[in-house]
Automatic annotation (TrEMBL):
This is Transmembrane protein. It comes from Methylomarinum roseum. It comes from the Bacteria. The chain crosses the membrane at residues 20-48, 69-100. Keywords: Membrane, Transmembrane, Transmembrane helix.
Length: 120
């Protein structure tokens, strides 16, 4: 007698994208050691996979990671352009602290399987 079993692959699917979100956080963190190229790779991966997590708790992480990239890039440009005015150093230091905070905060929420909630 044949028995038809339906398996819910939703949990393993979610787990795959949770691992991918963790990899993106790792690539973002490695950008501080490797000159930023891994940050670009991370945002490309985020954009390519964002649609797959739409409507799930992981969507907030992918959006968080993408937003982190763009704000960090903008801060880097503004900080670099204003270096001659000395304020650039403050902008760059602030951007570094802000970016590290975003990576740690997001990765911590991900490790607890929780949606990332913007705090600022």
């Amino acid at each position: 007698m044949n028995t038809f079993h339906v398996h819910d692959n939703h949990e393993s699917h979610s787990s795959d994208y949770k691992d991918l979100a963790s990899l993106i956080y790792l690539l973002q963190a490695l950008a501080f050691l490797l000159g930023g190229i891994t940050f670009v790779i991370a945002v490309v991966i985020g954009y390519l996979n964002r649609a797959h997590v739409k409507g799930t708790w992981l969507e907030s992480h992918f959006q968080w990671q993408i937003n982190t990239f763009w704000v960090a890039l903008l801060s880097l440009v503004v900080g670099t352009l204003t270096l001659p005015l000395v304020i650039g150093y403050v902008v760059l230091i602030g951007a570094i602290i802000w970016t590290i905070h975003r990576i740690v905060y997001g990765w911590n929420a991900l490790s607890k399987s929780k949606e990332v909630k913007p705090i600022f």
